[in-house]
Amino acid sequence: MLHTHKCYINIAIARTCIRQPFTISYMLKFICMLNAIAMLWKVIEAE
Known about the structure:
By secondary structure, the protein is mainly alpha-helical. 94% of the residues lie in helices and 0% in strands. The chain is elongated and about 55 Å long.
């Protein structure tokens, strides 16, 4: 029972990923921005 439930959740996640690829790309861009800001802070603190 629990296993089939997990499968349904995976299918739902896969469907949303297929339906909204732009959302994932926005998330990746956002993560890249955060990483860039963190790197800048490290450089500023080093100076």
